[in-house]
Model the fold of this input.
Amino acid sequence: MHLNRFNLVVIGAGVLGCAVLTQMVGRYFSSVSIVDGDIVTQKNLKNQRLYSEKDAAEMLNKSRAAVAHLSALNSSVKYNSFPFYIGEQRILGVIKGADLVLDFTDNSETRLIINDACFKFKIPLLIASIRGKNGFFYLIDWKHACYNCIYTNLQKSYNENCANTHYESAMRLGALIEKELSRFIAGDNGFLFNSVSLNTNRAHSIEIAKDPHCGTCGASKHMHSLDHGFIQACGDGLKFSSQHKIDLRAVCRAFPAAIKKANGQAVFLGGVNKHVLISRTGDFLFTGYSRNEALHFISRLSGVNV
Done:
C-alpha cells in the first residue's frame, strides 16, 4: 500500500478521537478527514487536550478545531473537516475513496450506519470505545463479523457512553490502537476483537465468526437509519441531526430572548435548566430536554424559514 496515497477518515473527535489523532499525527497517512458535529465546550478541555480555551470561547466545531491544531503540528498531511453529525444521508459522501475508517463515536445508532456504509464500499473499519477502565477495539475486514453481527448477538444490550472517559484511559487505548494501525499498514492483519483492561493494559483477543443472518453482511440485508434524526447522546444531552444546513440568523430572529451566545457557526439558546446548541450544519444538542420536548422545539423551528 502506498502511504503517500493513503486516505483515512476519523469519525468522532471526542476523548478517544483526540487521543488517537494526536498520537498518530503525521504518521502513515497523506489525507485525514475528521468528522464531528459537536462544539468545543469548556468542560471538554480537561480530557480532550487537542482543544484550547480559545476554541471553547469561540464555540468552534470540534472537527474544524482539530484540523486547525493538527495542521499546525504537521503541514505535510492534508486534513479535511466535516463539521456535522453522521447520518445515512451524509455518510457515503464522507467515506467514499477512504482506505480506512476509524469509528470513535459513542452510540450504536451511528455505528450501525457507519458499518453499513463501509460494507457497501468494502472499506476496512476500526471501531473502538471505552467504558470506565475497560476498552475495546476491533478492525473489521468484512471476512469476519461486522459490528452489526456483534450488536445483534449482544441483543442490543451494550450501552455506550463516553461521559466518564478520562484522558489517561484514552491515551492508553489510543497507544494500542496505533499499534493495530501499524500492523494494518504492514499487512499483518489479525482482525480480532480486543477487550482491554486499561488498568493493566492487558488485552484479551478473540475471533468472532460472521452471523449468516446479519442485516449488513449476511443474507438478511437491512440498511440502518437514524430514528427521526435522533442520535443517542454521550452524557451531555440529546443529539439531533436535520442533515441539512440551517440559517442561524433566522433562528436568532425566532428566539431573540433565548440567545445566550451566537456566531457564524453556532447559536446557544438557554432557558431555565434547558439549553440547546444549534450549529449551521443543522445539528442540535439538547440539554435538560426530554425527547418529546426536543421534538416540540424542532416542530416549532420547522415553522421558521431556516
Notes: The longest strand covers residues 125-131. The domain at 3-206 is CATH 3.40.50.720 (Rossmann fold).
